[in-house]
Specification:
The chain is an alpha/beta fold and 366 residues long. It has three domains: 2-115 and 216-236, D-Maltodextrin-Binding Protein, domain 2; 122-202, Periplasmic binding protein-like II (D-Maltodextrin-Binding Protein, domain 2, 3-Layer(aba) Sandwich); 241-338, 2-Layer Sandwich (Double Stranded RNA Binding Domain). The protein has twelve helices and 15 strands. Strands 4-3-5-12-6 form a five-stranded mixed β-sheet, with helices on both faces. The protein has a five-stranded mixed β-sheet with strand order 9-8-10-7-11, sandwiched between helices. Helix 6 links the parallel strand 8 and strand 9. Helix 10 (238-257) runs parallel beside helix 11 (308-321). The radius of gyration is 21 Å and the shape is globular. The N and C termini lie far apart (47 Å). It binds the ligand NCc1[nH]cc(CCC(=O)O)c1CC(=O)O. Its cofactor is dipyrromethane.
Length: 366
């Protein structure tokens, strides 16, 4: 058939349009921030390199327009506008920071690719390039992610944690101006923008466990765009996807019974069996922390890469057994005294910082 010979493929019928891959440019929706367009640009470039014309379409999200704390404007604030545009057929692909995506999937949409992850660690940017241990008690450290705040408080260093919001430039500017002694942000954001030289310290996960899916992208499209699903699948990195599946399963499982901040990180590691055979496994670590830093619960598991999501569920169950649900009360008290308790539908809760159904995602747009 002529179509087959000329490589013409069709997709997008579900959205009421016939999208011809060979002739039409794939529209990649992204938020307008420098970090978001840089991330989506890597997906565009990979598609073009594979012979598929692609372009970026900027979608303004409520999260970009509001300076309100994310806890007030709701989780999913950075991702739901992109998903709506995708469902409506205004774009063909949405590129998200995976950690900002609610754990609940969107009907009719699928994560067709999880490209190779950037370094998932959290990073300290400080005046004078000091590492965490060099900051004297009383130093003022900016971060709004409850997960980061809780773990920093638990360090016992006597740091004063202050809220932080705004794009990367704004946040880095608060260190440069002396308003803050340091900030804690995702290393991945700095690396993607070529500013990793500003990192004073990248935290070992034993010190500060990153958010589930930190440093990873979710490349989403309509489930019925079969042709596009298979094109995007070429951008998928199986070890990254397995790690994210495990980390997100921890988060999703804990959402049911725990509102405290959650960190999780998985790595594909090499193990050796009794006969000396080397094989790969998934190593998963997670933490649930009281927002006030008074308690942390950690657990880890190693298992088959094929069982990524199951490992995450099992680890979450173990954390609950160890008392993760009891940290809720502490978190609730903390929120009550803060006076900004704001409960959202927990089925939407997800994002970075965890899970906390009220504080929702990490309160820092990027
Ligand atoms: N919650 C905001 C957000 N979403 C993604 C990133 C950075 C990139 C990433 O973590 O993948 C950030 C900023 C930050 O946490 O410092």
């Amino acid at each position: 058939m002529h179509h087959t010979l000329s490589g013409i493929r069709h997709f997008g019928q579900g959205a009421g349009t016939v999208h011809d891959v060979a002739e039409q440019t794939i529209r990649i929706g992204t938020r307008g921030s420098l970090l978001a367009t840089t991330q989506a640009g890597t997906v565009r470039d990979a598609l073009i390199a594979a012979g598929h014309p692609a372009e970026l379409v900027i979608i303004t999200t409520p999260g970009d327009l509001s300076a309100e704390p994310v806890a007030k404007i709701g989780v999913g604030v950075f991702t739901s506008a992109l998903r709506s545009a995708l469902t409506a057929g205004e774009i063909d692909v949405a590129v998200h920071s995976y950690k900002d995506l609610p754990t609940a999937g969107e009907p009719g949409l699928t994560i067709a690719a999880v490209p190779t992850r950037e370094d998932p660690r959290d990073a300290l940017v400080s005046s004078g390039g000091r590492v965490l241990g060099e900051l004297p008690p009383g130093s003022v450290v900016g971060t709004s992610a409850p997960r980061r705040a809780a773990q920093l408080r638990a360090s016992g260093l006597g740091l004063e944690i202050r809220p932080l919001r705004g794009n990367l430039d704004t946040r880095l500017g608060k260190v440069a101006s002396g308003e803050l002694d340091a900030i804690v942000i995702a290393r991945a954001g700095l690396v993607r923008l070529g500013r990793e030289n500003e990192v004073a310290e990248s935290f070992d996960p034993a010190v500060l466990l990153p958010a589930p899916a930190q440093g990873a992208l979710a490349v989403e499209c309509r489930s019925d765009d079969a042709e596009l699903v298979s094109i995007l699948a070429e951008l998928d990195d199986a070890p990254t996807r397995a790690a994210i599946d495990a980390e997100r399963a921890v988060l999703a499982t804990l959402e049911a019974g725990c509102t405290a901040p959650v960190g999780a990180i998985a790595d594909v590691v090499e193990s050796i069996d009794e006969s000396g055979r080397i094989f790969t496994e998934l190593s998963l670590r997670a933490i649930v922390a009281a927002v006030d830093g008074s308690d942390t619960i950690k657990a880890s598991v190693v298992g088959s890469v094929d069982r990524a999501a199951e490992l995450g569920k099992e680890l979450a169950a173990e954390l609950l057994d160890l008392g993760a649900a009891e940290l809720v009360a502490l978190a609730d008290d903390e929120q009550a005294t803060d006076g900004d308790a704001h409960r959202v539908d927990s089925s939407q809760a997800a994002p970075d910082g965890g899970v906390d159904a009220r504080t929702g995602q990490e309160n820092e747009n990027a």
